[in-house]
Amino acid sequence: MSDILVHTEAGVMTLTFNRVDKKNSITSSMYAELADALARAEGDAAVRCVLIQGDPTIFSAGNDIGDFLNGPPSTQESPVFRFLRGIATFTKPIVAAVCGPAVGIGTTMLFHCDLVYAGDNAMFSMPFVNLGLCPEAASSLLAPQLMGYGRAAEALLLGDPFMAEAALEMGLISRIVPPSEVAALAQRQAQKLAAKPVSSVLATKRLMRQGQASLVAARIVEEAQTFGRMLGEPAAKEAFTAFMEKRKPDFSKV
Ligand code: COA
Question: Over 90: is that where the pLDDT of 55 sits?
């Protein structure tokens, strides 16, 4: 079975991370599947809304670290960057259902979702610095805007995680419910959106987001260039190798 399940019903294309044994960490081929699914959804009039979900225990542990170590994304056409461009410019509404850890891109992709429903076990983190990397998905722009610089600095410079209550307060998510109810709520809300006049929904999303669409696009490219370079540098190599070897990284020499 694929690591990304795609199911379309009642106007909603549901994308489910299906790699729970590896905490739904995302490989290059999963990014390609996600990017392709979003492109199909964009062009298919039968799809009026996309829903992204994990399972009740884990949303996503972010990039698959081994995969990144073995085949780092080398160009803007790499699947991870195709996915980021796709989600950031997607014109139809995107709903997310988040339970458990949402690490790295597991959190940053949510900046590009319109309605995010979270379980009270949701935990968000952007530990790029701890991995010798820098922010991606325009999170260096969007996190300070949403959270205020002080909290964004704790989240992005220290890599401190934050829980669902904090995410709700800062407006990253729309509502918190018990983990067992998140998927059903998100699906109901997605179907509600899909039943509304499509032109009004699209115009409203465009109007809410257009003010900084070009800034977001430019920041994604700028971050990707820095991120791509840093992946090959000693700090990231040490962080990734330490993760694979299940030990603490030693940054004293990098
Ligand atoms: N890449 C690759 N494999 C990952 C992974 C990742 N990002 N996250 C988890 N896994 C794998 C683990 O290596 C382990 O594999 P194994 O069973 O073959 O040893 C399995 O998933 C379970 O992970 P584990 O760490 O034991 O689960 P946990 O419940 O204790 O912790 C997390 C869950 C998500 C908190 C923890 O796995 C984690 O912090 N992962 C790394 C997150 C990260 O730094 N992502 C990169 C962001 S750019």
Answer: yes
The residue nearest atom 38 of ligand 1, judged by CA position, is 61
Distances (CA, A) of 246 to 241, 249, 252: 8, 9, 18
Q: Can you tell me the distance from the alpha carbon of 134 to that of 93, in angstroms, rounded to the nearest whole number?
A: 28
Residue identifier of the C-alpha nearest atom 40 of ligand 1: 61
**CB contact at 8 A, 132 and 175:** no
Measured in Å, residue 32 CA sits from the centre of ligand 1 at 21
pTM, rounded to two decimals: 0.98
Given this model, what pLDDT does residue 154 score? 98
Is the dihedral angle over the CA atoms 163, 171, 31, 187 positive or is it negative?
positive
Q: Residue 216: phi, psi to the nearest 5?
A: -65, -45
Measured from the Cα of 130, ligand 1's closest atom is 44
Is residue 204 within a helix (H) or strand (E), and if so which, with residue range?
Answer: helix 198-209
Residue type for position 94: I
Give the distance (Å) from ligand 1 centre to CA of residue 80. 18
Ligand 1 in contact with 54 (CB < 6 A)? no
Token pair 């499509």: residue: 198
